[in-house]
Write a structure and sequence with these properties.
A five-stranded antiparallel β-sheet has the order 1-2-3-4-5. Strand 1 and strand 2 (10-13) form a beta hairpin. By secondary structure, the chain is of the alpha+beta class. The protein has helices at 49-61, 63-74; strands spanning 3-7, 10-13, 23-28, 31-37, 40-45. It contains two helices and five strands, in the order E-E-E-E-E-H-H.
Length: 86
């Protein structure tokens, strides 16, 4: 599970050759969620509401980079880091 970003205690990663729809995973403490990329929304799991908002904001800003990493993950290629939320 390659980590692609970290911010405010959130760890964002993608699994190589994962299943559709395009998504990423976000972990915060002992909580985790699977987040769709387009549109950015929680598909499974849960995070605290404030953290969910930050992750959705980050995903919205980095939609194209996330989709590119998804394409790379599907082809088992190394993923590119994505700038954190500041």
């Amino acid at each position: 599970m390659p980590v692609i970003s970290r911010f405010f205690g959130v760890v964002v990663y993608m699994n190589l050759a994962d299943h559709a729809p395009p998504h990423f995973h976000a972990r915060y403490g002992d909580r985790e969620a699977m987040i769709g990329i387009d549109p950015p929304l929680v598909l499974r799991g849960d995070l605290p509401p404030r953290v969910t908002g930050m992750v959705i904001e980050w995903a919205t800003r980095h939609r194209d980079a996330l989709l590119e990493d998804w394409r790379l993950a599907c082809s088992h290629s190394p993923l590119r880091p994505i700038e954190p939320l500041e």
